[in-house]
Amino acid sequence: MKYTPKELSDNVNVSGGHPLVELAWLAGGLVTIIAAIWLCLFLVTELVIPRVPVDVEVWAGNHLLGKQSHRDNPVATRVLRRLLAALPGDSPLRRYKFSVTVAENDTVNALAVPGGRIVVFSGLLKQIRSENELAMVLGHELGHFAHRDHLRGLGRGLGIALAVAMIFGRDSAAAGFSTNLVHGLEMRYSQRQEKNADAFGLDLLVAGYGHAGGATDFFSRLAGESGGKAAYVLASHPHPEDRISALKKMIGEKGYRIGAGVPFPGLNGDTR
Questions:
Q1: For 264, which of 79, 101, 144, 179 is 20 to 30 Å away at the CA?
Q2: What is the pLDDT of residues 242-260, one digit of tens each?
Q3: H helices of 66-172, where?
Q4: What are the tens digits of pLDDT across the range 2-33?
C-alpha cells in the first residue's frame, strides 16, 4: 500500500499569514509602543520641568553630570556678563549664577549644562570673528535655560533609556531600533527648540549691544562648510541657511538695525 501524506489544515506552529505582513504588524506595533512612551514622557516633562526649582537644577548639574575641568576665557566671561546685565529685571534667568568655560574640543558647538554653566568648545571660538557673534551664541544658550530645554531633553532621554532597557533588554535588536526611532522624534523637536533659542539670543544681543550686527555672521560662515539640507533632516540643529533666513526675517519684522561688531581677540589674545 502506498502512503500518501495529508496536508495539515490546522497547525498552531505554522502561521496562516504571509511573513512580510506579520513583520509589518510587529514593526508597526513596536513603533506605536515607542511613540506612546515618548509622548507620555513628553507630556510629563512639559508638566514637571517648569516647576523644578533652580537649586534642584543646580544640584543635578553638579552631581549627576559631574564637574569637568574647563578653562576660563576672559572675553567670553565679559560678553556673558554684558548679556546678563541686559536681562529684564523680572527675568527668571536672574535666579541662576551663570558661568562660561571653554572645553578643548574641535567640535563647533556650545552646551547649556543644568545649573547655569555654559560650555563653549574651542573649535567654535576658532570660528568667531567678533564679540557680537559670540554674544549671539551665548544668548542662544541662555535661551535654552530660559525655556529649560536642557532639562526637558535630559528627562526624556533618561526615561526612554530606562523604558527601552526594561521592555526589550539593553542589547536587543528591538532596543536599537527603538533608540533610532526616539532619536528621530527628539531631533525634530530639538530643531524647534533651537529656533526659539535663536529668537531669544537675537533679542538679548540687541539689548546688550544696541544692534543686531553679528547675529547671522557666524551661521553664514558655517553654511559655507555645511553639507546639503538632507543631512540635517535628523539633526538637532536646523541647517545654517534656514537659521539665517529665520533670523533675517525677525530682524526685519522687529526693525533691528545692523551695526559693526566688536573684534574678538580669540583664544590666544590675537585680534582677528
A1: 144
A2: 899 999 999 999 999 999 9
A3: 74-85, 122-125, 131-147, 149-168
A4: 666 665 555 555 555 566 666 676 667 666 76
3-state DSSP call for residue 118? strand
Residues 238 and 232 sit within 8 Å (Cβ to Cβ): yes
Q: Compute φ and ψ for 204, nearest 5 degrees.
A: -70, -35
How many other CB atoms sit within 10 Å of the CB of residue 171? 8
Which pTM was predicted?
0.70
DSSP lists the bridge partners of residue 102 as: 71, 120
Residues recorded for the chain? 272
**Residue 176, all three cell numbers:** 536599537
Could you give the CA distance from residue 196 to residue 237 in angstroms, rounded to a whole number?
11
Q: Are 208 and 164 in contact (CB under 8 A)?
A: no
> In what helix (H) or strand (E) does residue 108 lie, and over which residues does it extend?
none
Q: How far, in Å, CA of 147 to CA of 236, rounded?
A: 16
- As a whole number of angstroms, the distance between CA 152 and CA 45 comes to 6
- Cβ atoms 235, 187 nearer than 8 A: yes
Kindly report, residue by residue over 20-67, the tens digit of the pLDDT: 666 676 667 666 766 676 667 666 666 766 677 777 777 766 665 555
